[in-house]
Task: structure prediction
Amino acid sequence: MKSHRPILFIYAKDVSLFTRKSDRHGANVLDKIRTHYGKKRHQPVTIAEFCDYMDLDEVEVHNILKNK
Result:
């Protein structure tokens, strides 16, 4: 049976789903988000931070990632 744990973090491959660009571009977007929020390179970006930065609806992003 599949676990129903919430998705907390977003990764470069996930970002590429929304931007329709390469995974490398997704990594660059995540780097910009980390800089914007004052995070270090090793700290993951949350879906909430991604949605706030990209001005996207968090519920819709969760639904898309859950069904990918």
Notes: Residues 12 and 28 are 8 Å apart (CA to CA). Residues 9-66 form one domain. The radius of gyration is 12 Å. Strands lie at 9-10, 45-46.
